[in-house]
């Protein structure tokens, strides 16, 4: 038989048809009546449970927070949300005693202690402690970029990456150094910068022992040992260990010269070339020979000069 439950009090769900079914879930419940959802088929032993379940399909939000007015489809969700206003954190980690507003958040946190990674990638096997991290990771395989910049249309795997990118258009720098007040668009860049003040170098090369303040610098350095050159020019095929090196090289093909001297307006493809050129105007000679004291505007000129003292031919064929 079939009946219709009309949820008049919400004015949103009306005339949703549900079936009352006689089911044999086990031998003892042969004549027990269940209420089945007409949308997904899930069964409930009470009408009120079905009524509660139906709101997950309709997205109606019949419960609201009396502090901020935010709506929820379930009463329990309101109770959990309310803790944001009260600051209540009833769930505590028995290892580090960190407190949480939700039990689920505590369960996720516990994996940091147990190194539990219940979610694994079906493509490469990499494991994750959070399902959301696996979802983002899978986009590396599918190349799906669901978040795009509405200014330049560049796509991103994660919304947080889009938010960071968008600051390149707005020039927003919400993170500032409390030592020198320099501003940064990304918190990670602030963390890297802060090590210039502390001289902290937490990343160490396991081949030569050289230390670095940034993980990216270590990764780039490591390629000197492996001779890895993952970046190649699409025009001539020349390979580079750093993306920045490829970008600079590419200007040879495009003849792009984005750096201009503000004295004579001569253009340069590299900022370092502009800096060297600028010394022809300022007469600055920052490099000096530690034997005779002669000064030079370019390091290369000092290197050539130094060979005069060592009896080495100053112009070696390399």
Automatic annotation (TrEMBL):
Q: Name one GO cellular component term.
A: nucleus
The listed locations are: Nucleus
* Keywords per UniProt: DNA-binding, Metal-binding, Nucleus, Repeat, Transcription, Transcription regulation, Zinc, Zinc-finger
The molecular function terms of the Gene Ontology recorded here are: DNA-binding transcription factor activity, RNA polymerase II-specific; RNA polymerase II cis-regulatory region sequence-specific DNA binding; zinc ion binding
Q: Which SUPFAM superfamilies match?
A: beta-beta-alpha zinc fingers (SSF57667)
Main localisation, per the record? nucleus
The record's section on InterPro entries has: Znf_C2H2_sf (IPR036236), Znf_C2H2_type (IPR013087)
Report what the protein is called.
Zinc finger protein 45
Species name = Araneus ventricosus
């Amino acid at each position: 038989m079939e009946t219709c439950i009309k949820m008049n009090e919400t004015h949103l769900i009306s005339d949703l048809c549900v079936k009352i079914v006689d089911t044999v879930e086990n031998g003892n419940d042969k004549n027990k009546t269940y209420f089945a959802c007409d949308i997904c088929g899930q069964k409930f032993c009470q009408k009120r449970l079905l009524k509660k379940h139906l709101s997950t399909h309709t997205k109606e939000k019949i419960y609201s927070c009396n502090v901020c007015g935010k709506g929820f489809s379930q009463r329990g969700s309101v109770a959990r949300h309310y803790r944001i206003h009260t600051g209540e954190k009833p769930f505590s980690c028995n290892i580090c005693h960190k407190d949480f507003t939700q039990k689920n958040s505590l369960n996720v946190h516990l994996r940091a202690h147990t190194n539990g990674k219940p979610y694994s990638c079906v493509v490469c096997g990499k494991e994750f402690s959070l399902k959301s991290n696996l979802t983002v990771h899978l986009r590396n395989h599918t190349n799906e970029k669901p978040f795009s910049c509405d200014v330049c249309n560049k796509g991103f795997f994660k919304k947080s990456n889009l938010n960071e990118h968008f600051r390149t258009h707005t020039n927003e720098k919400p993170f500032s150094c409390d030592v020198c007040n320099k501003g940064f668009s990304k918190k990670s860049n602030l963390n890297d910068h802060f090590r210039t003040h502390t001289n902290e170098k937490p990343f160490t090369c396991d081949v030569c022992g050289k230390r670095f303040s940034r993980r990216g610098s270590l990764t780039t350095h490591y390629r000197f040992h492996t001779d890895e050159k993952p970046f190649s020019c699409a025009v001539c095929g020349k390979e580079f260990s750093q993306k920045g090196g490829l970008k600079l090289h590419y200007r040879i093909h495009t003849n792009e010269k984005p750096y201009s001297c503000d004295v004579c307006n001569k253009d340069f493809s590299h900022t370092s070339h502009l800096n060297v050129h600028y010394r022809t105007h300022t007469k600055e000679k920052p490099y000096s020979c530690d034997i005779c004291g002669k000064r030079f505007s370019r390091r290369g000129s000092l290197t050539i000069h130094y060979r005069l003292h060592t009896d080495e031919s100053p112009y070696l064929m390399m």
